[in-house]
DNA sequence: ATTAGCACTCAATCGAGTAGAGTGCTAATA
DNA sequence: TATTAGCACTCTACTCGATTGAGTGCTAAT
């Protein structure tokens, strides 16, 4: 059975209505509220077809129909198809303050997005490839303490405090700094590993005693550069949805938000455009009755993180896709203008 | 009317029971479950007295009694009084990994505390006095970019990226580093402000063009060192409490958790011991039916942050006070062992 | 001073009855 | 032949009165 124009129209009407009301929709409602030009009986027949085809579901025999995940998928696809061709122009935001912490900016945007959408938003902070290290600096802070500083090409800085078991002369730092910058900054992960395993110890010469600690720190920093941080905002918005009056569901949702590793997976960027995962399309059992709209934000075209909206499968996809697109464009613009040129 | 021994016993029984069951308690229940050695009628009379005295409340005329905030206060005070005299010894935890990010450690402890208590926990990350700056370092990362690094005496490092409008020669950094360390590191806030306003510009001489940016950055860093970060975990636990089946209440709670500035105020340390705020004892309207148990964690005796447990006024104060005390002691130990000696 | 007993109160629960939205099917209609 | 009107049927949600039961306050007896 083909999904002809009339069926599409009716399906569209059912989904739109359900998104607004959260109530199952009957044929009569459709006939009255949407001028399809058909009687309720005809619509009834079509709805039975749509159910058979898997686009709609019936909570119980004498209830109206609600959209299935497949139904939402149809809806989202048709929105996205429409959308991809007329990218709205965005206001160009120039930086206001020069010095802002990266995380703070992203959090702020996630917060704004939560506020305007009235949904829970999650943001994944920069994931940086370890071959993007631009500079390393060792800074003595005490006779037996130093800070190991890593700067990446997007200006993100990570630092580690090293406790040394032996005092290190100040002049040695110069030597170490040069060595590390030469051998690590800008190098590929493979090269770095090779250097650490083979050459480092010999090259250190008289200061070989800090080799272990140095290697550990460098490995840790490489590992951490690949790690990400998750931030959630507007968490309480989920409770605005009547479907979450069920406390068990609500509890699952909040558990999910506390489960950072899982959120991290969920927000892993997979396509280069707005990515919508509806209900069971999500990889995780925990998310089977939630939808996620996610998209990446960038610095000068390079993906640095993800922002997502999480809500019930009944969500206003049209509006949310629009809003998340606007916000991430803005965010990418702002970040690009701050971390604008090569470091 | 005095709170005699018999009244105390009954009050204690009512509160203990209510903490377990979340149901109003009647006189008969008390008579049966707790061997006070009195009939329900007598207990009934005593309970009427306790209500008159403000320790108990009645949700409606023919219901049992529940503890008022004043009742909980009595309960908590008697626990604390008991507690303050026999501080249990704690296992001494030595550091396992040398390099860990401060925030990660605190978050981990907050998470563990949430898990063992089954309550929502919040942690306030270090608040540092600006007169505690130990070292400042300017690091060139490109001809027109540099990193401004601040190290405090607890080893916390903050960094800021400066975009300069003009290129700066590498030799100048040495000069700036010395100047800033001499004039800012270890100085009081007042001294720093004076230096920034009066002397800095002249001292800069030929590099005066970076004065504005430098001053702004320093001011910002001073401001940020006083700011704090809030982390919440175990948020979904609140839904385990039957009193939070009321969605409005639940929503308020989650709004509260999203409201970082307010949480910040709530976690402001006020006393040097475990601090319990019951219902209306909290400053904020938003928290009038929540209780907070909070206490500080320290590095070598200096307060660096706060951890708190948030839950309904009916909470198991005895157990929670014990557990938060254990955890913060552990945390303080660990932090002190990592950031052990003077930097 | 304590307690037994009793009348009273009130929230919660249960069940029958009803309303109403919606369906599927059949027969009439354009 | 496609559409529609009509009807019997289904099922949930809601209402409403009755009932239950825990709890109280008061009084009189111990």
List keywords for this structure.
homodimer, five-stranded antiparallel sheet, DNA-binding, alpha+beta, Enolase-like, domain 1, 3 domains, 12 helices, Arc Repressor Mutant, subunit A
Explain what this protein looks like in three dimensions.
The structure is a homodimer of 343-residue chains. Chain A has 343 residues and is an alpha+beta fold. The first copy, chain A, folds into 3 domains: 63 residues, Arc Repressor Mutant, subunit A, CATH 1.10.10.10; 145 residues, 2-Layer Sandwich (Beta-Lactamase); 97 residues, Enolase-like, domain 1. Chain A contains 12 helices and 10 strands. In chain A, the strands form 3 sheets. Chain A has a 5-stranded antiparallel β-sheet, sandwiched between helices. The first copy, chain A, has a 3-stranded antiparallel β-sheet with strand order 4-5-6. About 4% of the residues of chain A have low confidence. At the A-B interface, strand 4, strand 5, strand 6, helix 9 and helix 10 of A face strand 4, strand 5, strand 6, helix 8 and helix 9 of B. Chain B binds a DNA duplex (30 and 30 nucleotides) through helix 2 and helix 3.
